[in-house]
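Hi L.,

You mentioned the student needs an example of a multi-chain input paired with its predicted structure. This one should do, with 637 residues in total across all chains.
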Amino acid sequence: MTAAVSPGGPTGGPVWLDHPAARVLIRRHRLRWWELLPWIAAIGVYFAFPDYLGFGTELLIVILFALSLDIALGYAGIVTLGHAAFFGIGAYTVGLLAFHGIWTEPISGLVLAAIAAAVIGVASGLVLLRTRGLTLLMLTICTMALLGEAANMAHAYTGGFDGLPSLPIAPVLGAFEFNPLYADTQYLYTLAVLLICFVFVRALVYSPFGQSLTGIRENALRMHAIGAPVRGRLVICYAVSAAIAGIAGGLWAQTNAYVNLSVFDLDRSATVLIVLIVGGYGRLYGAFVGAVAYMTLSHFLARIYPTAWQLGLGLMLLLIALFAHNGILGVGEALWRRYGAERAAP
Amino acid sequence: MPNGLADFAGILLGGVSAGTVLFIVSVGLSVTMGLMGFVNLAHGAFAMFGGYVIALAMNRVHLGFAAALALGFAATAAVSAILERLLYRRLYRAGELDQVLLTIGLIFIFIAGITMVVGPESQPLRLPPALQGQLNLGFMQYRTYSVFLIMVGVLIVTAIWLVFDHTLIGTRIRATLDNRGMAESLGINVDRLFTITFAFGSGMAALGGGLGAEFLGLDPQYALKYLVYFLIAVSVGGLGSIAGVYSASLLIGVLDFVLKFYLPEGGTIFIYALTILLLLWRPQGLGRKET
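Structure written out for the whole complex:
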């Protein structure tokens, strides 16, 4: 039976659905079995390593922060070294509201943190995203430094350099108290927030909106030519990324029960960039792989051999920049493809 | 001279001398970023490396100040030329992200290397007696070293300007800045030009590291601590513009001193705000024409 006789292909659908490209595109966003693994592993860690839940919480927050950067950097191609600005806004939103006794409920606190970061994201995005390259990079750094200085100047409210200690955070859902000595509530709470944000981000990047972001990254001129509102999409994307970074910052403030100026550090922006690139940017799981690799190594090596760790990290960054542009996941995919090809043609 | 005015003149001179150091470090970054389009965050690390060579040459080998400065320039230029040939060259056509990553990696390696070899404590740099003390300027007394720095800065900016505008290599650099493809077709050896300019720019950074060590200090965190200031000077001044970077550096230096004196709390916020406004007004920087 040929297509000329009947418009149905082997699957019974229209013929164009049988085009190999169409099949790939249709299946692209489907849930795969291995996508459950990170979550099973996270639950496993909860039972297997009860002593490391504090570290685990920190790790989950870094994953969320790197995921937020991935939307802006990996998908839309906005090169920023100032992403800690939004992390800091989220952290200080939670911190200020809790310290001054205005709002201590954690979940709505995160919503407020996301809104505050998104507002700053829209405001700065409208201005910054007109520029590109070095100018954009500098503007993102300066915005972050500006916010950090502002937090320092307003020390009557923010505690300045010392920050805001021992924040009173209400129990999650009114039942689960944050215990500063044993981080089980913090861990599960952070994991739940990460899951919700991840589901949202996953839906976002596979949506037409997410596709148009990739289009802008690859060729902004063509996107202009087909009539896509490039600037508007970039600003929205920047705001969404900011909101999620704000949630990460809010979580950081809640689970640590303090905020200080370190949330606005250039160090923090550089670290999250490194985490994302080590894992592989522009792919959903890069943030997970990068954060696990980086945080585990730094947690166990950096305290014992700080200088050697820094040297090793520097060498690793050189290698990634020169040879492995897509990070661990990129290398894995390349190996998989080579290995798979050998199996197919022995 | 009334007291307030003397204060102000002192602050102005201090700001200009700090701005001069900023200029000496940043000018190389401006030319190399403009010429090669490479986001070189490791420039501060070269300044730090040079500063260490200069300080160690004076403290341990008891070299004179001028000889140590020359040694620092030469050593840093040589190291950076090697790095340019081995590493930077591969990423000229890559995206900013890979360049940022490579140079952040280099910063870490420099910081770790210096911590391992020299140690984490900060290095003192003792000035020669001739440059210590106060100088009578006619209308007021001022620190000899600051006056010396300002004069060195004027000398350097004049020399670079002369080379840039009136020599063959300067013409080649300007031609490559404007249109690399055309310059290559005219037979200019762009590869060699890149290496030479890069080495020279890093050498200048080393001089800046040594000359500024007296008040910026010299410790392994130097490479990161002042990076934002170098980048601000370059982006506000304009890539590849000597006059632009000079004026931007002096502006930042003076502003920093004035704000720290009259607004001791959080005066730096205005520097960041001003940078943002200037960059939005002239994304190309002060010294570059719109393209």
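You could point out the following to them. The mean pLDDT of chain A is 86. The CA atoms of residues 96 and 102 of chain A lie 8 Å apart.

Best wishes,
N.
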